[in-house]
Structures are given as C-alpha cells and as structure tokens.
Specification:
single chain, 166 residues, alpha+beta, 4-stranded mixed sheet, 4 strands, flat
Length: 166
C-alpha cells in the first residue's frame, strides 16, 4: 500500500467514525463561544488570562448562560545559579482552579484545575530582567487560558448548547 493510499484510508476512517471538528458547524466547541461570562480582572495576570480567553471564546457579557470563576496561583522557583550564588534562571509555575457554572440554575457544569510553567533569564540588566519576568508572566497566563479553554471544549459534550437554555 502506498503512503498516499494509507493517508486516504486514514482520512476515510476518521470521517466514517463521525469525527467533526470542534469548532465546525456541529462541533461541540461552538456551544461555549460567546456564552461565558468572566469576572472583572483584579490584576495584570487576570487581565492577560481574560484577554486570551476572550480572544478565543468571545465575550459572553452579563447575560451569558455560563459564568467562569477562576483562582490563579503562581510560584517562582530558582533553577539556575552561578558559582557565586547569583540566580540566572527562574521557573514561573502557575495553576488555575476554575469552575464553569450555569447562570440560570446555579449548577456547576465543570470544576477542575490546570497547571503550566515557563521560565526567564535573570542574567541581563535589571530592566531586561523585569521585562523578561513580565513576558514570562504573560506567556504563563496565555498558556493557562488556552488549557482552560481546551478542558472546557473537551467536556462540552455534557453541556447543552447556548441556544437550548431557557
């Protein structure tokens, strides 16, 4: 069997099993687009998280059928040092505990957590280190927002579509 035939057979078997793209016309991911209200950000990290979430899922607003509450934790961990003891690399570890709630019934639809990490170098000037730290914090919040979205989309099959909510 040629490589081309194998690829075509694989595509045909995936299509035959009822596979639909998550964000396609009948995909499960569309049920949550523009349907989730986020709390107002209280700090820069929450702002970046909300911004990324809304970039991908849209803005639900106050009348959205679902509300997402989040609790973000971050920790710094020194992972590199010179022989003199100066820190050269920092790992930034983040966790998000999140709950998706049906605003009409108050029922918890999904309660979970996710975590990620990123790092930055401290070997430059103070200004460069501060910029690297801010960049790492932004990357971390973007990663965490993407993981929360992925988790919600994977579990969306248990959620009624936004149009079917009374």
């Amino acid at each position: 069997m040629t490589r081309r035939a194998a690829v075509l057979a694989l595509i045909g078997s995936v299509a035959a099993c009822g596979f639909t793209p998550v964000y396609g016309p009948q995909g499960g991911g569309t049920a949550l687009v523009n349907a989730i209200d986020l709390p107002e950000p209280t700090d820069d990290s929450q702002y970046v998280f909300n911004r990324r979430f809304e970039e991908r899922m849209g803005r639900g607003g106050g009348a959205a059928p679902y509300r997402l509450t989040t609790r973000v934790q971050t920790d710094d961990q020194d992972i590199g040092a010179t022989s003199a003891g100066s820190v050269t690399r920092v790992r930034l570890i983040g966790r998000v505990f999140f709950t998706l709630t049906d605003t009409a019934t108050g029922e918890v639809v999904r309660d979970a957590r996710t975590n990620a990490f990123t790092g930055y170098s401290t070997t430059g000037a103070t200004v460069a280190t501060s910029a690297a730290q801010r960049d790492a914090q932004e990357r971390l919040m973007t990663l965490l927002a993407d993981q929360v979205i992925d988790d919600l989309v994977l579990h969306v099959s248990n959620v009624p579509t936004a149009g079917s909510i009374p």
